[in-house]
């Protein structure tokens, strides 16, 4: 019996290894993922032992009537629901900040106690909050969560909020700790760890200086350029990497020092494999800082939440019932501006806005908005409970009523099944993850668009009208000739179509009727082909940094990868993902290609090779040439980090900031240990460029920490 038991145990072990859910070994390519955003405190109470911990007692409300208190959700609760998440097709979870938070009550305007249940008032970035883990603030429960997630094929993203600590006027007065050791606070800030400016208000939200250096809602604003804070925050991020996280959602990137964030991203990518995206709130592509946002995303290696598309989605599918042309316009505009538009994280709602069903309590529209988000370009993110139609409409459903406790975990809702089906499609058809997006047929109520990656095609049709079906004639597609059944098998009312022979990727579809409130999906996956690159990540790094190339048909046998004409060292190779080390080449932009073992060469994809790891330096130029409204001073120089002497608005470093006109400053991340050359230029409102006179300025960048350089404009 003992031998039989041992044999059974061995068989069971082999079974668990062979049939365990598959998790990609790399995180840098997130385009194939479906993210699920969780407010940890409001998801599931997995352990009552941490509901009212001694060091922060009195912040928990068992009645769940105080919407600004802890309600008991924790990391153990998420872990216990891992199979539920995996069954929905979730492949990544984004959890609210898990770090040790404010330990005291702060009365609200009505005298009611409030708590930092949401996680955005950090007191120690290197310990886990006791309400989410345990009373010793150890990493045990966090590690258990990561292990369980990875075993279920799910990656883990942590919300990271390096802009601020706690409220500067109450509680602990912004106090920061380094793994339990007191660093300082806002009130007695002799070291200069914090900025001491007023709250952002009025037009300041769109002012570049105030947006980055003023205060958010009385939260003690961290001075990331202080060498102690710079090292502390980067070490905290690295600590999460050591504990197995796959990515970071960076809070309030619009309100962090933009130039410093280049070095933060570089620090994370240098340490190891990760995916980064951030929150830059803006209403649309006409936002005053929209141009700054896409310049940031194109250069930092940090993607962002797609707020312009979110606004359009809520307008089109929500209560205003706007025409589909609004979505189509945003897709087109962002497609022209964002280099890495497929990395934008798309969503219909989140923790900072009323849930979709609070603005339009219509499940048909919710399904349509979900289907669009899951099939359009970008990485979809689902807010917890959406699949259970969770919403509370008190006070319009805004904060905190957009954060109710999760109550149902049904696997049979239409939304749950929809997410599962379209997540599977995203994994199986690279057109969804990597493909182009083009409108094929549109009117006020109907949007038919196509995703295409070489010979892989997905055609999606949405009719959001509640009562009227439409006859669809004159529709062309890249789908090959043939009949196609609805991939959703009629879940949202779709049916089959017939594609006829055409030319040039325009095969006519036989006229058909698209019924009211219907979503239909038709798809084709091509067979073996030449190597096809769909993604590279990170998109920027110095020699020695590992980067992941993803796509299809790379082959099982290792081939070669070239940065321009230089062959890179291959670390791993599969038919869909290759990891390589950035080679030692001159800094600049390179086209990366893959050649398989049979000498077939792929398409190219852009990658920026830096000179060395990045150090954040404050550049100040005094008494700059006079400027008028709409004119700005920029920095340019002799390395790719300084734009290689570019003089265009989108490429040069800036615009600089001028709280003390005519002196201008900004932080730029430049290569460690290098002697750089630079100058300042004025780009006028009409595009005219004025250079300062004299020889190039020079500066030797320190090998670590932060730095500054202060010069006068040369006339």
Task: Tell me what you see in this structure.
- The radius of gyration is 26 Å and the shape is globular.
- It has 715 residues and is of the alpha+beta class.
- The strands form 12 sheets. An 8-stranded parallel beta sheet has the order 13-12-11-5-2-1-15-14. It has a 5-stranded mixed beta sheet with strand order 27-34-33-29-30.
- Mean pLDDT is 95; it is low at 1-25.
- Helix 6 runs parallel beside helix 7 and helix 9 runs antiparallel to helix 10.
- Helix content is 21%, strand content 28%.
- The protein has 4 domains: 32-339 and 407-428, TIM Barrel; 436-524, Sandwich (Immunoglobulin-like), CATH 2.60.40.1180; 532-609, Sandwich (Immunoglobulin-like); 614-712, Immunoglobulin-like (Sandwich).
Ordered list of secondary-structure elements with their pairings:
Elements: H1 2-19, E1 35-38, H2 75-80, H3 82-88, E2 92-95, E3 99-101, E4 122-128, H4 140-151, E5 155-160, E6 164-167, E7 176-178, E8 181-184, E9 194-195, H5 208-213, E10 219-222, H6 227-242, E11 247-250, H7 258-271, E12 275-278, H8 290-300, E13 303-304, H9 307-317, H10 325-337, E14 345-346, H11 356-359, H12 363-375, E15 379-383, H13 414-428, H14 430-434, E16 436-442, E17 446-453, E18 456-463, E19 470-472, E20 476-477, E21 482-484, E22 497-499, E23 507-508, E24 512-514, E25 518-524, E26 532-537, E27 540-541, E28 546-552, E29 560-563, E30 566-567, E31 569-573, E32 577-581, E33 588-595, E34 605-609, E35 614-622, E36 632-637, E37 657-660, E38 663-671, E39 675-683, E40 689-691, E41 697-700, E42 707-712
Parallel strand pairs: 1-2, 1-15, 2-5, 5-11, 11-12, 12-13, 14-15, 27-34, 35-42
Antiparallel strand pairs: 3-4, 6-10, 7-8, 9-10, 16-17, 17-18, 18-25, 19-24, 20-23, 21-22, 26-28, 28-32, 29-30, 29-33, 31-32, 33-34, 35-38, 36-39, 37-38, 39-40, 39-41
Helix pairs in contact: 6-7, 9-10, 12-13
């Amino acid at each position: 019996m003992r031998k039989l038991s041992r044999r059974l145990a061995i068989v069971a072990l082999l079974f668990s290894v062979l049939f365990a859910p598959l998790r990609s070994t790399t995180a840098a390519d997130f385009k194939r993922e479906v993210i699920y955003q969780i407010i940890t405190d409001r998801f599931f109470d997995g352990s009552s032992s941490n509901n009212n911990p001694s060091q922060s007692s009195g912040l928990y409300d068992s009645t769940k009537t105080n919407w600004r208190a802890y309600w008991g959700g924790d990391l153990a609760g998420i872990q216990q629901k891992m199979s539920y998440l995996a069954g929905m097709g979730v492949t990544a979870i984004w959890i609210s900040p898990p770090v040790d938070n404010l330990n005291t009550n702060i009365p609200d305007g009505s005298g009611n106690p409030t708590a930092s249940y949401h996680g955005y008032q950090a007191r120690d970035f290197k310990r886990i909050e006791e309400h989410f883990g345990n009373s010793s603030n150890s990493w045990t429960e966090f590690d258990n969560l990561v292990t369980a997630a990875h075993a279920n094929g799910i990656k883990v993203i942590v919300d990271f909020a390096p802009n601020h600590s706690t409220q500067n006027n109450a509680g602990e007065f912004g106090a920061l700790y380094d793994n339990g050791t007191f660093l300082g606070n806002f009130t007695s800030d002799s070291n200069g760890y914090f900025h001491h400016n007023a709250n952002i208000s009025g037009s300041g939200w769109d002012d570049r200086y105030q947006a980055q250096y003023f205060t958010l809602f009385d939260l003690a604003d961290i001075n990331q350029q202080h060498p102690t804070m710079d090292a502390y925050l980067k070490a905290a991020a690295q600590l999460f990497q050591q504990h197995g996280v796959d990515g970071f959602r960076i809070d309030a990137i619009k309100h962090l020092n933009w130039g410093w964030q280049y070095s933060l991203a570089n620090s994370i990518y240098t340490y190891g494999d990760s995916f980064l995206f951030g929150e830059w709130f803006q209403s649309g592509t006409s936002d005053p800082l929209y141009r700054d946002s896409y310049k940031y995303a194109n250069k930092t290696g940090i993607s962002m939440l797609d707020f312009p598309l979110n606004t359009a989605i809520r307008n089109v599918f929500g209560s205003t019932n706007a025409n589909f042309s609004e979505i189509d316009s945003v897709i087109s505009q962002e497609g022209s501006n964002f280099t890495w538009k497929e990395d934008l994280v798309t969503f219909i709602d989140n923790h900072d806005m009323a849930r979709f069903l609070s603005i339009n309590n219509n499940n048909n529209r919710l399904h349509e908005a979900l289907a669009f988000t899951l099939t359009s370009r970008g990485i979809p993110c689902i807010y917890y409970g959406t699949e259970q139609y969770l919403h509370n409409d008190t006070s319009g459903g805004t904060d905190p009523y957009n954060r109710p406790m999760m109550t149902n975990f049904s696997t049979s809702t239409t939304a749950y099944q929809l997410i599962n089906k379209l997540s599977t499609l995203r994994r199986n058809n690279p057109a969804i993850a990597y493909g182009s997006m083009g409108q094929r047929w549109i009117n006020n109520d109907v949007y038919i668009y196509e995703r295409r990656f070489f010979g892989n095609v997905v055609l999606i049709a949405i009719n959001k009208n509640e009562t009227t079906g439409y006859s669809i004639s004159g529709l062309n597609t890249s789908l090959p000739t043939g009949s196609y059944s609805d991939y959703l098998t009629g879940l949202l009312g779709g049916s089959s179509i017939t594609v006829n022979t055409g030319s040039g990727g325009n095969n006519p579809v036989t006229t058909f009727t698209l019924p009211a409130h219907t979503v239909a999906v038709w798809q084709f996956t091509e067979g073996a082909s030449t190597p096809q690159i769909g993604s590279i990540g990170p998109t920027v790094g110095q020699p020695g940094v590992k980067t992941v190339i993803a796509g299809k048909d790379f082959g099982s046998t290792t081939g070669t990868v070239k940065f321009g004409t230089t062959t890179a060292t291959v670390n791993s190779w599969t038919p869909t993902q290759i990891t390589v080390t950035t080679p030692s080449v001159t800094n600049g932009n390179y086209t990366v290609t893959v050649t398989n073992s049979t000498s077939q060469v792929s398409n190219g994809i852009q990658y920026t090779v830096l000179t060395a790891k990045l150090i954040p330096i404050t550049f100040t130029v005094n008494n700059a040439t006079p400027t008028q409204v709409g004119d700005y001073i920029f920095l340019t120089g002799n390395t790719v980090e300084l734009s290689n002497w570019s003089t265009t608005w989108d490429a040069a470093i800036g615009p600089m900031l001028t709280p003390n006109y005519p002196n201008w400053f900004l932080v730029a991340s430049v290569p460690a240990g290098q002697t750089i050359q630079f100058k300042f230029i004025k780009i006028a409102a009409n595009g005219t460029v004025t250079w300062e006179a004299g020889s190039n300025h020079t500066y030797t960048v320190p090998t670590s920490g932060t730095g500054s350089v202060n010069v006068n404009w040369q006339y």
